Amino acid sequence: MTGKVTITTHDEGKHGEYHARLEGHDETGRLTWVERDGVRVAEHTIVPPAIGGRGVAARLVERMVEDAREEGFKIKPVCSYVVAAFDKHPDWADIRA
């Protein structure tokens, strides 16, 4: 990974986003979610090409996983990237809905 990635959360109650900024770039990567039946459904991971290929999407998913463990919610992966990330991390099974 090149440059520092800063992740911020934007929680609007029943929906929200994680935003990733890569040091030295104006573009923002996003992971969007909605809450359904107490579960956060990870819907989309979007990383602009200018900051792609640097682990930004992985950091977004990792932050959501960290928050799930700290805040006690489950994640339902719907976005293909998030599904693949969960499949690669069997240690995340405890928070997968």
UniProtKB/TrEMBL annotation:
Protein name: N-acetyltransferase domain-containing protein
Region named Disordered: 1-20
Domain N-acetyltransferase: 10-97
Basic and acidic residues biased stretches: 9-20
Pfam families cross-referenced by the UniProt entry: Acetyltransf_CG (PF14542)
Listed Gene3D superfamilies: 3.40.630.30
InterPro entries xref list: Acyl_CoA_acyltransferase, Gcn5-rel_NAT, GNAT_YJDJ
Residue stretches in coiled coil: none
Taxon lineage: Bacteria, Pseudomonadati, Pseudomonadota, Alphaproteobacteria, Sphingomonadales
Superkingdom, taxonomy of origin: Bacteria
